[in-house]
C-alpha cells in the first residue's frame, strides 16, 4: 500500500455523520450505527472516497465487546458488528464514483478510554497494566482481522503503556498497522515525551507507519519530523480542524486551522499517510488530495 506513494486518508467520521443528520449521543458514539444505521456509515465513507481519499477508516473506533455488552449485544453479535465495520467501508469503496484509483480500508481500534466514554481517552493512565490492556485489545483486533482489512488504525493513543499493549496485541494477526498518538505539544496526552512514545514502535515489524491524530494542526507540524527521525518509518498524520471545544456551552469555538497548505510540510518531513480527524470534512479532504497529488504526481514523489 505505502509503496504506491503518499496516500490520502479520510476526515472525521463523526462530523460527516452529524452533517447527514445522525445523532451520536450515547456510549457507543458512531459505533451505534453498526447496530441500527449501517447504511449511514456506507454513505459517510463513500463521501470521503469521492472527495479523493485513498483510505477510509472504519466506524469501529468505539466498538468493543464491553461497550456492546452494555447495550445487550452478546460476544458473537459484537464480533459480527466489528467485522461489519470493515465490510461497510468495502461497500463504500466499491460503489463510490469515480472508481479509477485503488481504495483501501483501515480498521479503527480506538484506545481503552474510548470504551469508557468518559473522556479518559484524552488522558490515558487508566490504572491498568500493559498486559491488561493487551487482553482488552486483542479480541477486538482478532475480530477485525477476520474481516481482512488492509491495515489497522491504532489511533488516538494517549500514552506509551497503551501503545506497548497495542503493538503486542497485533502480533501474529497478519494485518499491518499504523500507530498514531493523541498529543499536546511535544508530549502524549498522558505527558510522556513524544520521542519516547514513537520509539515504542521503532522495532515492531507489524507497525508500518507511526504518527499523530486528533490533535491540533500545529502540534502535528512538529510531530511528523520527530516520528520519522525516531522510527525511520513512514509517518501518518491526521489532525483535527484546530477549533476548540467549549464543554460548558457545548459548541466549537475559534477558527479552523487545518489547511491543505500544511500538506507540503508534512510530506517533506516524512508523511506518507495524510488526512484529517474531528471536524475535517470532505471539502478539506478534497483540497488535501489535490495538494498531495500535485506534490507527488500520479506515479509517486517527484
Automatic annotation (TrEMBL):
The positions annotated for binding Zn(2+) are 214, 277-278
Keyword terms: Metal-binding, Methyltransferase, Transferase, Zinc
Listed PROSITE patterns: HCY (PS50970)
**Gene Ontology annotations of biological process type:** methionine biosynthetic process; methylation; S-methylmethionine cycle
Q: Which Gene3D superfamilies match?
A: Homocysteine-binding-like domain
Domain Hcy-binding as annotated: residue spans: 1-292
GO terms for MF: metal ion binding; S-adenosylmethionine-homocysteine S-methyltransferase activity
Q: Which cofactor does it need?
A: Zn(2+)
Superkingdom, according to UniProt? Answer: Bacteria
Pfam families listed in its UniProt record:
S-methyl_trans
> What protein name does the entry list?
Homocysteine methyltransferase
Q: What organism is the protein native to?
A: Streptomyces uncialis
Organism phylogeny: Bacteria, Bacillati, Actinomycetota, Actinomycetes, Kitasatosporales
